[in-house]
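Fill in residues.
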């Protein structure tokens, strides 16, 4: 079992997103908690540098993405770094 932390600034980003994106994010977080940060079964998933991962939550225009990072592998802690449009993603 993994712990997923969502910082306050990211929680504020999430509040402004469409309901369908919020729902998919909740499902993604649930799967990360159960199965870990590597989510190859999600659309456009990829591992990024520095223990970061990303996937698409909604395709189209705009495309919404989630970016998360393994903060501590030994205690199984993951932090959601960004949720929002693909254009503003920090990668």
């Amino acid at each position: 079992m993994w712990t997923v932390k969502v910082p306050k600034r990211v929680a504020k980003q999430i509040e402004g997103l469409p309901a369908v994106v919020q729902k998919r994010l909740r499902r993604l977080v649930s799967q990360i908690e159960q199965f870990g940060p590597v989510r190859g079964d999600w659309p456009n998933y990829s591992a990024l540098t520095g223990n970061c991962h990303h996937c698409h939550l909604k395709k189209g225009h705009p495309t919404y993405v989630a970016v998360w990072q393994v903060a501590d592998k030994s205690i199984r802690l993951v932090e959601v770094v960004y949720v929002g449009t693909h254009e503003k993603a920090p990668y």
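Strands lie at 3-5, 46-48, 52-58, 64-72, 77-85.
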